[in-house]
Amino acid sequence: MSGALAGKVCLIAGTTGIGGASARLFGREGGTIVAVGRSRTNAEMLGRDLAAAGVPHAVIAQDLSESGAAERVRDETVARFGRIDVLFHVAGISGRKFGDGPLAGCSDAGWDAVFSTNLRAMMQLNRACIRHWLEHAQSGVILNMASVLGFSFAAQHFNTVAYAATKAAIIALSQHTAATYAAHGIRVNVIAPALVETPMAARATTDPVIREFLRRKQPLTRAPLTDEDCARAALFLCSDQAAAITGIVLPVDAGWCVSG
Predict the structure, then answer these.
(1) Domain range for residue 232?
(2) Active site residue: 115, 163, 181, 256, which one?
(3) Does residue 3 lie in a domain region?
(4) What's the domain count of the chain?
(5) Which of 67, 119, 174, 247 is the most exposed, fewest CB within 10 Å of its CB?
(6) Could you tell me if residue 259 is inside a domain?
(7) CA nearest 195: which of 177, 170, 215, 169?
(8) Where are the beta strands (DSSP E) in the chain?
(9) Are the C-beta atoms of 31 and 8 separated by less than 8 Å?
(10) For residue 57, what is the domain's CATH number?
(11) Known catalytic membership, residue 181
(12) Residue 255 domain-assigned?
């Protein structure tokens, strides 16, 4: 390991899938980890992994879509470790079970659930960290999780309009924030994966038709990406190796965007 995050306090929203993989990798690279997730069980499982690896850490079971949650998480992180250097916001949902789908079939409940969790909660935690950094004249790094489905569509297999709309909005939110706060030493970037083997994506990753579709759509892997593929890209953008990079959208997509 290179120690790319040595001395950095890294707040990661998400404790499974890409969030969990990133917490473990960031810890191996010297970061102090604060991981936040809705499920206390998942948060505690991740905490045990970090403890076993000797990583300084805290885990917080918190629904970030609740009012005031972002400020509580920020303040607890600062109280425990004195600062926040990096925010990586991974947490999000697929809204199919709430009624997300193609526009003609998308329910109001599905739309609201996806926007509340995927966009509003992200905005609030981004805002809480930005306010803290501005108040204390500190620099900081934000990396937000979008998806190739925010700009490169495959409606035959992934036809959820609210999900796609939130992922496109995350890009606008992030780039606007990057432009606004670059002069304060605050960097904001976006990672946009294609299909990744995570618990949230189980419907797609276990579907034989979609697996066959990926053989040509993700030709570098001919299969779903791993959460480690995304964690490694996130590590670069959150580290000082990317100190001159802000406002970018990095597709981690195994060729999705350049394949028919």
Answers:
(1) 9-245
(2) 163
(3) no
(4) 1
(5) 67
(6) no
(7) 215
(8) 9-13, 32-37, 57-61, 86-89, 140-145, 186-193, 249-252
(9) yes
(10) 3.40.50.720
(11) no
(12) no
